[in-house]
Write a structure and sequence with these properties.
Oligomer: single chain
Order of helices and strands: EEEEEEEEEEE
Structural class: mainly beta
Distance between the termini: 41 Å
Radius of gyration: 13 Å
Length: 129
């Protein structure tokens, strides 16, 4: 059974930085597509960034490209989302999700939440003016 545990997040002023980590238990991340989603109150869930745990290729949503960085930590079997230049519109609950590595294939839409089998409980990120 795969389990995901998120850590990090919190509150920061606009322009600041926060990080989120997702630890994976029960499966090797090198065999997974690991993705962060976020959902703000009253809004639909949005895919933020994904990483192929095998080859390290990363995908970003246009809204975070250049500000967020997703990296793997194979020693800790985890992924880290570094968020810089945070904006108020980044305020949301962030969820870590894991799916088959094929979800991160170039010819596949990694942003579809239905393709992910395992989810963390979520971590809050709040950005104030």
């Amino acid at each position: 059974q795969v389990q995901l545990a998120e850590s990090g997040g919190g509150s920061v002023q606009a322009g600041g930085s926060l990080s989120l980590s997702c630890y994976v238990y029960g499966y090797d991340i090198s065999r997974l597509c690991m993705t962060w989603f976020r959902q703000a109150p009253g809004k639909e869930r949005e895919a933020v960034a994904a990483i192929d745990g095998g080859d390290g290729i990363v995908f970003y949503a246009g809204s975070v490209k250049g500000r967020f960085t997703l990296t793997p930590d194979k020693l800790q079997n985890s992924v880290k989302l570094q968020m810089n230049g945070l904006r108020q519109e980044d305020t949301a609950t962030y969820y870590c999700a894991a799916g088959n590595r094929l979800v991160c294939a170039f010819d596949h839409d990694w942003s579809r939440s239905d393709d992910y089998n395992y989810w963390g409980r979520g971590a809050q990120v709040t950005v104030s003016a």
